[in-house]
Structures are given as structure tokens and as C-alpha cells.
Amino acid sequence: MKKLGFYLSLFFMLNQTVSAATYRVDSEDAFKKIIPKLVAGDEVIIANGNYENWSIEIPSQGTTEKPIKISAEKKGEVIFSGETTRTIFKLTGAHLTLSGIKFNECILIKNNGSTGILIDLNNSTYCSITDCIFTKNIAKIQYSPLVIVSGNGNYNKVNKCLFMGNIDSQDLQVKITKESCPQFTLIEYNTFMQKDKVSWGNGNGGECIQIGQDPILLGNKEANATVSKNKFYNCNGENEIISNKSSKNKYLKNYFESNDGELVMRGGHDCIIEENTFNGGTGGIRVNGTGHTINNNKISNIKTAIRLMYGMTKGKNETGFYIAASDCVVSNNKITNATIGILVGDSKDVDWTGKFDTTRYPSPVMQNIAPYNNKISANTFKKVKATEVVQ
Length: 391
Hints:
Elements: H1 2-18, E1 22-25, H2 28-34, E2 43-46, E3 49-51, E4 56-58, E5 68-72, E6 78-84, E7 87-91, E8 96-99, E9 101-108, E10 110-111, E11 114-115, E12 117-122, E13 128-130, E14 133-135, E15 138-139, E16 145-150, E17 157-159, E18 162-164, E19 170-174, E20 186-188, E21 191-195, E22 209-211, H3 215-218, E23 226-228, E24 231-235, E25 240-245, E26 250-252, E27 255-259, E28 262-267, E29 272-274, E30 277-281, E31 285-287, E32 293-295, E33 298-300, E34 304-309, E35 329-331, E36 334-346, E37 350-351, E38 366-367, E39 375-377, E40 380-390
Parallel strand pairs: 1-2, 2-5, 3-6, 4-7, 5-8, 6-9, 7-12, 8-13, 9-14, 9-15, 12-16, 13-17, 14-18, 16-19, 17-20, 18-21, 19-22, 20-23, 21-24, 22-25, 23-26, 24-27, 25-28, 26-29, 27-30, 28-31, 29-32, 30-33, 31-34, 32-35, 33-36, 34-36, 35-39, 36-40
Antiparallel strand pairs: 10-11, 37-38
């Protein structure tokens, strides 16, 4: 019995030693002080209140069974606002979850080479941003994302977040460079809405989601990202609601309503676009690149539902500002109430002379290579003036 008592006492002592801790913080300094203490299973609760100008890096390591949770005391009651030239939350560890934070009227500016970002999942693995709210935030530098997934991490997730009324920004960016490409990012169950046209002169830099930034030189990079079950309402920031500029990504079961823009394969190859729904707005799906699969989408009340584009070059190995759509499969899509169902060969003979840097991008300037080797079959059309147009 004495031995049993001893082992029971030892068990409870060890259990107390490894039990999770909960920390409550209400300032940047208080948060930074507890970061070295964080271990798997711990939780950090940020007290309700209004905050600004934080810059927190979290390298802590959770586990699958015991993630480290950073959360608002009450969803939407922890509010960050004001000018920022740094990253407010930078997650560089593993199995970290950031949830319930609201970013409202933050102003992203650049100073001394540093640009404001709200959240950066940087070289992180199995980290997630969930149930966060991003409203009326303003980017003062073109092509600035509110949320970024960067570095060579993998299996990070952004889900159940609201992006509403943000101004002149990219809402969510997966950053791809020569040195880095995040893998298997999951973007799901988010809502994007009420995004006005950007004020930038060239009309670019207002995507809701962008995966890759240089489709000409880095479009062959395989990100293996999945964008699924998101909703987009009145997203008018620019012509590309979602901009794909990398390879082997999946766009599944998303819903688009009354947007001024399209789901765009701007670059990259071998992506899957399946079971998305488009209702109203100015466009559906625009395609450049090779090997894409576009199946089982429902597109209604749109002038041109699917566009396969001319390019300057062809294939995966030629450098082209635009790559002709080729070897794509377009099947079993249901198109209703459109002027043109499927347009094969848009932007024919468009001349890009003087419109991009041909030294940096050694590409022909004429969009004169037609789409080729595409398989179009078993699509259905209702109230469509021209089901398939080839140019």
C-alpha cells in the first residue's frame, strides 16, 4: 500500500507539472513576457479591449494533441486598430491557433523598409487563424496583404474568418518567392464581402485571395493550396477576385454572388476548379496556363461564364506574360442565362507593347497563340445565346 501511495503521489505530481497553463494578458509587454513560458497545451487569453501598434512574434511549439491557443476573451471584443508599420501577430512556430481577434480600421503603412501586416504565418506548420474579423482596414502601399502565409511552412489554415469592407488591400496572400513556397495551405469557410474598387491607378492589388505573385517566372512553383467553401459577395476590388499564380492548387465548392471580377487562373498549371457556384456579377472563370480541370461548376446570370485565353507563349517551359490555355478539361459545367457560355480564344491579338518590362520578363508582347488541346464536353446550357464561341 505504501508503494501504491508513493506511485499515486508521483503520478499526480507529474500530471500537475505537465498540465496546461492559462495566461491572461492585456498589453504587448505582458504578452511578450509569457512567450518563453509557453508549452504545448497552454492558452493565452487577450482581455477585451482596444489595442494598437503591437508587434508579437510567437515561435512556440504546440502539438497535434495539445495546440497552443491564443484567443480573444470574447470573439470580436479584442479590437486592434490604428496605424501599423510592423506585423501585429507573426506566428513562426507549430500548432498555434489565433482566434476571435477583430482588426478594425487598421492602417497599413510603410516606414524604414517595414510594412504593416496584420497576421503573418511565417515558416509555421499546422498553425491556424480562425474566427477572426477584418473590417475597414486600409492599405497605404499597393499590393499589401492584410493576412499573409509566407516562408517554407506547411499545412497552415485560415478558416471561418470575415473580411469585410477592406480598402486598397489584398485580403489574403500566399507568398511565393524563388526561395520559399508554403505548402498545403487550407483556406476554407471564410466570407469576403463589400470590397470596393481599389484607388490604385492600374486597378490592381485588390484581390480577396492571391496564391503566388509572379506567374511569369514562378508560375511553375507548386503550392498545393486548397481554397474551399468560401463565400464572396460584392467583391469589386479588381478584376481578379481570386488570383491563381502558381501550380497544383484546388478551388472547390466556393460561392460567388454579384462580384465585379472572376476566379482567375492568371498563371500556373494543373489546378482543379470544381463545384463552385457563380450567381450574377461580371464574370465567372478565366483561364490561362496548362492542364487545368474545370468541372461541375454552376454559373448563372453572367455575360461570359468561362473564358479560355490567348497567350504570348505555350506550355510550362516558355516564358510568357500570358500562357495560352491548353490541355485543360472543361466538362459537366451547368451554365444558365448567359450571353456566351464558353469562349475559346479571348484577348486575341492584344498588343502589350510598353505595358510590361520585357527585360525582366523576356516574353513576346502579342497575345497571338490560341488555346489548344483543350477537351470541352458534357456541359449543359440553358437560356444561353451562344453556348460555345471559338475565336
